[in-house]
Inverse folding.
C-alpha cells in the first residue's frame, strides 16, 4: 500500500510542474541580459576612461607647449638672435656678435612696442601700422618664427597639425604700464677746492654760479623728450680761471645731480670741468679740434644711463652752438692735458657771454620696462589648449654692474671704530692698507670710454676721497695712460655694492647660479689653469672660483673670485670680473710683448663675512658702511701691457644669463 501511495504522489507532482517548463531558459536569458548590461557598462566606462586619459594627455602636452612658449621668449631676451627683418638694416655688425649695434638687439622696450616686436609693423612719426592683423599685439614675430600654414602659432617639431601636433603663441605686455613720463629734480654746484660744491665760485675777475631748475616732467612716449638741468651764469670775461694751459690739476670741477622719481627712484651724477678761454689752443676732438674761444664746460660724458632711460646732453641756449664737441685726447697726438697726468675726454659746450644765463638741456629716451608679462598659449593634439601667464624680471640681482671701468671699494685701512687706529693682525687677520700699483709699462691703459655708446665713465672709481687722492698722485707719474677722471663713486654704487651685507647676499646668489651651471669651484678644488672661463667671443657665461685663481687665457661673461686673482702672461676677458672675499685682490704679471685685455669692468671689493657682515654692519657707531669693507689691493707688475676698457655691452651680455628670470607661473 505504501508503494502505491508513493507512485500516486510522484505522478501528482509531475503533473503539477508542467507549467514550470522553460523557466530555466528564461532564467538563463535574464542572467545573460544582466551580464550583458554589466559588460556594456564596463566597456562604456573603459572607453570613457580611455577618452579621459587621452584628453588629459593632450592637455598635459598643451601645457608643456605653453611652457615652451615662455622659454622661447626668455631665450630671445637672453641671447638676442638676429631679428627678421632687421629693425635698422644700416647698423652693423649684426647679432649675435657681442659688439652688435643696440638698434638690432632685443630689450624690454623693443619686446612690447609693436613696431620693434613684430615683423609686419612700421612706424611713421607716432603712428604704427601692421599689415598682418595678428601683429596688432606684441608677439615677437620679428624674433620668433611663426608657422606659414598656421600663422597664429609657432610650431614645435618638424611638422604640425591641430590633431596631432604641438605649437604655441605668445603675447608680451608691460605689467607696470611704464609710460613715457620721466620726472626729476636737480641739484648742483661748483667745487670750491675742498670737495664741497656751493652754488657759485669766485675766480678773482670772474664769478660763475649754477642755478638748478624746478621739478621737470618729460613726456617721452612718442620719442625722446627734452628737459632742463639748470644754467650757469658768468660774471666777467673768464680771466682768473685756472686751466689746461697752466695748471690742469686746478681745473674747476662742477657737479649736477639728477634725481629721478619716475619711472623709478634712481640718479645720475653729471660731472665736468670749467675750461678757461684760449682761442689759439683748441682741445683735441674725436674727429677734429674743439675750439674754446670763450669759457667752456667740458662734461665728462655726453650720455648717461639710468632707470631704463638714456640721457644725452643736447643743444644749449642762447649763444652756444646747437651741438657740442667730443673731446678725446690720445697718446698718439696729444700731451696729457688733463689733471693729474690724465688725458682729457668728454663733451665740450661753449659758454654764453657775460651775465647771460647759459642753459643746459638733456634728451631723455622713453624708459624701458623692468618687468614683462608673458601670456603663452599652448596647443596640443585633438584641439587641446592651455594658457600660462608669467612675470619675467629683467635682472636677477637688481642691476648688477659698476659705475667705473675699475671700481675699488673699501677704506684706506680697517678700523674697529670710526676714530680708532688702523687694525692689522689677530683681530682682523687679513685686513691690509689700500694698495694701488697701476703698472710700470707704457702699454698699460685705463679707459672709461664705452665702446658701444657715447658714454664716458670714470676709468678708475673709488669710494673715499683719501684713496682717490692716492690714486691721482700715483697716476700722475706712472708710464701708462688714463683716459678720463679718477673719481669718488661712492654715491653711484648700485644697491648690491653699497655695503658688505648686500654684496654677501649677492655672492651667495652668484654662487648658486654658477653651481647650477656646473661652473663652481670650491675652496678645496683645483680649478683649471687653462681653458675657457665663460665664452670670450659672446661675453657670456658665469664662473665662480671660491679660492685663489691664477689663469692665462680667454674668458667671458661673469667671473667671481673670492681670493687673489692673478692674470699672467697674455689673456683676454669680455665681461664683468668681481674679486671679493677675505683675501680678495688683483695681481697681474707679464713680460714684454705679453698683452692682457679686459673689455667690460672689474670690481675689487674685499670683505670678511664674519667681521664685515656680523660685526661692523651691526655697529651703529660706524655710519658709513663702506668702511665695513676691507681695503682693496690692485697690482700690475712686469713689462707686459694691460688694457682695461669699459664695455657696457659685454657687461650686459654677461648679465644676460642671470637676467630675465621667471618669478612664477599661473595657469589660466
Amino acid at each position: 500500500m505504501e508503494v502505491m501511495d508513493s507512485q500516486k504522489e510522484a505522478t501528482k507532482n509531475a503533473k503539477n510542474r508542467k507549467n514550470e517548463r522553460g523557466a530555466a531558459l528564461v532564467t538563463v536569458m535574464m542572467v545573460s541580459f544582466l551580464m550583458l548590461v554589466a559588460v556594456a557598462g564596463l566597456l562604456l566606462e573603459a572607453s570613457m576612461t580611455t577618452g579621459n586619459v587621452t584628453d588629459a594627455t593632450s592637455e598635459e602636452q598643451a601645457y608643456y607647449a605653453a611652457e615652451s612658449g615662455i622659454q622661447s621668449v626668455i631665450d630671445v631676451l637672453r641671447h638676442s638672435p638676429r631679428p627678421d627683418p632687421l629693425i635698422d638694416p644700416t647698423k652693423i655688425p649684426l647679432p649675435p656678435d657681442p659688439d652688435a649695434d643696440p638698434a638690432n638687439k632685443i630689450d624690454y622696450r623693443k619686446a612690447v612696442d609693436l613696431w620693434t616686436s613684430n615683423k609686419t609693423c612700421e612706424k611713421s612719426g607716432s603712428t604704427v601700422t601692421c599689415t598682418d592683423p595678428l601683429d596688432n599685439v606684441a608677439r615677437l614675430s620679428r624674433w620668433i618664427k611663426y608657422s606659414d600654414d598656421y600663422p597664429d602659432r609657432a610650431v614645435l617639431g618638424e611638422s604640425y597639425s591641430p590633431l596631432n601636433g604641438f605649437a604655441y603663441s605668445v603675447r608680451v605686455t608691460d605689467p607696470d604700464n611704464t609710460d613715457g613720463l620721466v620726472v626729476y629734480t636737480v641739484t648742483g654746484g661748483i667745487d670750491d677746492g675742498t670737495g664741497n660744491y656751493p652754488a657759485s665760485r669766485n675766480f678773482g675777475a670772474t664769478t660763475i654760479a649754477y642755478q638748478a631748475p624746478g621739478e621737470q616732467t618729460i613726456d617721452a612716449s612718442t620719442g625722446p623728450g627734452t628737459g632742463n638741468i639748470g644754467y650757469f651764469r658768468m660774471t666777467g670775461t673768464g680771466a682768473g680761471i685756472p686751466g689746461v694751459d697752466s695748471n690742469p690739476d686746478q681745473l674747476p670741477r662742477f657737479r649736477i645731480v639728477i634725481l629721478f622719481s619716475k619711472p623709478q627712484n634712481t640718479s645720475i651724477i653729471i660731472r665736468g670741468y670749467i675750461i678757461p678761454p684760449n682761442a689759439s689752443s683748441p682741445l683735441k676732438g674725436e674727429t677734429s679740434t674743439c675750439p674754446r674761444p670763450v669759457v667752456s664746460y667740458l662734461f665728462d660724458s655726453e650720455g648717461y644711463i639710468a632707470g631704463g632711460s638714456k640721457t644725452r646732453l643736447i643743444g644749449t641756449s642762447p649763444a652756444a652752438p646747437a651741438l657740442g664737441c667730443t673731446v678725446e685726447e690720445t697718446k698718439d697726438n696729444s700731451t696729457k692735458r688733463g689733471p693729474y697726468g690724465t688725458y682729457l675726454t668728454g663733451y665740450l659746450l661753449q659758454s654764453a657771454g657775460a651775465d647771460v644765463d647759459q642753459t643746459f638741456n638733456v634728451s631723455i629716451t622713453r624708459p624701458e620696462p623692468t618687468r614683462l608679462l608673458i601670456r603663452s598659449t599652448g596647443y596640443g593634439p585633438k584641439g587641446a589648449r592651455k594658457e600660462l601667464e608669467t612675470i619675467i624680471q629683467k635682472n636677477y640681482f637688481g642691476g648688477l654692474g659698476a659705475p667705473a671701468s675699475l671700481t675699488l671699494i673699501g677704506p684706506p685701512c680697517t678700523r674697529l671704530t670710526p676714530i680708532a687706529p688702523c687694525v692689522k693682525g689677530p683681530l682682523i687677520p687679513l685686513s691690509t692698507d689700500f694698495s694701488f700699483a697701476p703698472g710700470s709699462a707704457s702699454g698699460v691703459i685705463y679707459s672709461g670710454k664705452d665702446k658701444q655708446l657715447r658714454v664716458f665713465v670714470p676709468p678708475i672709481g673709488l669710494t673715499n676721497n683719501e684713496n682717490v687722492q692716492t690714486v691721482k698722485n700715483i697716476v700722475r707719474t706712472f708710464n701708462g695712460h688714463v683716459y678720463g677722471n679718477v673719481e669718488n663713486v661712492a654715491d653711484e654704487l648700485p644697491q648690491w655694492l653699497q655695503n658688505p651685507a648686500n654684496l654677501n647676499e649677492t655672492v651667495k646668489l652668484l654662487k648658486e647660479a654658477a653651481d647650477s651651471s656646473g661652473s663652481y669651484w670650491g675652496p678645496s678644488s683645483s680649478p683649471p689653469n687653462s681653458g675657457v672661463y665663460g665664452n670670450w667671443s659672446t661675453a657670456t657665461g658665469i664662473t665662480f672660483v671660491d679660492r685663489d685663481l691664477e689663469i692665462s687665457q680667454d674668458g667671458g661673461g661673469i667671473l667671481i673670485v673670492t681670493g687673489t686673482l692673478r692674470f699672467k702672461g697674455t689673456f683676454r676677458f669680455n665681461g664683468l670680473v668681481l674679486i671679493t672675499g677675505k683675501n680678495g685682490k688683483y695681481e697681474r704679471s707679464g713680460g714684454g710683448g705679453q698683452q692682457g685685455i679686459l673689455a667690460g669692468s672689474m670690481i675689487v671689493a674685499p670683505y670678511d663675512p664674519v667681521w664685515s657682515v656680523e660685526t661692523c654692519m651691526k655697529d651703529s657707531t660706524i655710519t658709513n658702511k663702506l668702511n665695513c669693507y676691507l681695503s682693496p689691493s690692485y697690482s700690475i707688475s712686469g713689462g707686459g701691457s694691460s688694457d682695461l676698457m669699459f664695455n657696457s655691452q659685454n657687461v650686459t651680455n654677461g648679465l644676460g644669463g642671470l637676467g630675465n628670470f621667471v618669478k612664477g607661473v599661473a595657469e589660466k
User: Anything to note?
Assistant: The mean pLDDT is 85. The first strand starts at residue 121 and ends at 124. The chain is about 20% helix and 30% strand.
